[in-house]
Amino acid sequence: MVKAALGRLRQVTGVPVAFGGGVEGRTGAVRFRLSELAGASTNALRGLLIEPQAGLGGKAASLGRVLAVQDYCASRSISHDYDVAVRSEGLRAVAAVPVVVRGTARAVLYAALRDAVNIGDDVLRGLVDAARWMEQELVVSDEVDRRIALMEGIADADERPSTAEWEAVRLAHAELRLLALRADSPALRAELLGISELLSPERSAEASVRLTPREVDVLSCAALGCGNAEIARRLGVGAETVKSYLRSAMVKLGAHSRAEAVMAARLAGQLP
């Protein structure tokens, strides 16, 4: 994910050097391991462990905002724990920004130039945008991990899941599909939809009912008790579009109401 964020940053801004890394460990002080380099001519920065408040990245993470210096090794506003590596790579102007998810710094991204100049606003905006993109991807990834853990806990139970547990499965199914709609990455979207499919009963090859993905999305929201207006808001479509998908699904399922459609979809293996 850090590599993808750096790629986006360089593509948008054209900055010659970008690097970054994720948080090291799960407990204690937040430290970052620089794992990804883009445009670097040496490996001097690779593997550096960025301590809290140390250097530009450690300070940016502690303050929770983007910081920039015109000449890294000469700056009086930061500590100089990493000057040897920065000097070895030939970097002068450097900017850093933390990737913060729910109040916790999860990664730090850098943009750098080989000249001692002020880093332009376009590069700073691009750096912040890359951090926000990564933040959104981490939110989705965290939610997927949480839902998978929930499902694994139910699957490991020795007895049949309770009604409450089945409702948790159905909620997870609906929310995974909604997360897929918001995912920028086609690969991540496909992965989320694939996980949601695992929550539904297996469908036989001869099954005659084949709902479209959007019809499943609408019915999964309807199964949670959402009205048309709420479904439209969640899916980002108009209320009339929701009605159209509902009518289409009801025809395919031979149902006369949304409640019948949800039940028929479950019996057909389209919904958990």
Could you please describe the fold and organization of this structure?
InterPro entries: GAF-like_dom_sf, Sig_transdc_resp-reg_C-effctor, Tscrpt_reg_LuxR_C, WH-like_DNA-bd_sf. This is Helix-turn-helix transcriptional regulator. It is built from 10 helices and 7 strands. It is an alpha+beta fold. It folds into 2 domains: 2-136, Beta-Lactamase, CATH 3.30.450.40; 157-267, Winged helix-like DNA-binding domain superfamily/Winged helix DNA-binding domain (Arc Repressor Mutant, subunit A, Orthogonal Bundle), CATH 1.10.10. Strands 1, 2, 3, 4, 5, 6 and 7 form a 7-stranded antiparallel beta sheet that branches.
In terms of topology, how is this protein built?
Blueprint: H1 2-13, E1 17-24, E2 31-33, E3 36-38, E4 49-50, H2 55-63, E5 67-69, H3 83-89, E6 94-101, E7 104-112, H4 121-155, H5 163-182, H6 186-198, H7 213-223, H8 228-235, H9 239-253, H10 258-267
Antiparallel strand pairs: 1-2, 1-3, 1-7, 2-4, 5-6, 6-7
Helix pairs in contact: 1-4, 4-5, 5-6, 5-7, 7-8, 7-9, 7-10, 8-9, 9-10
Morphology: elongated
- What number is the mean pLDDT? 85
Order of helices and strands: HEEEEHEHEEHHHHHHH
Number of helices: 10
CATH class of the largest domain: Alpha Beta
For the structure shown, list the relevant keywords.
7 strands; Beta-Lactamase; alpha+beta; 51% helix; Arc Repressor Mutant, subunit A; 272 residues; 2 domains; 10 helices
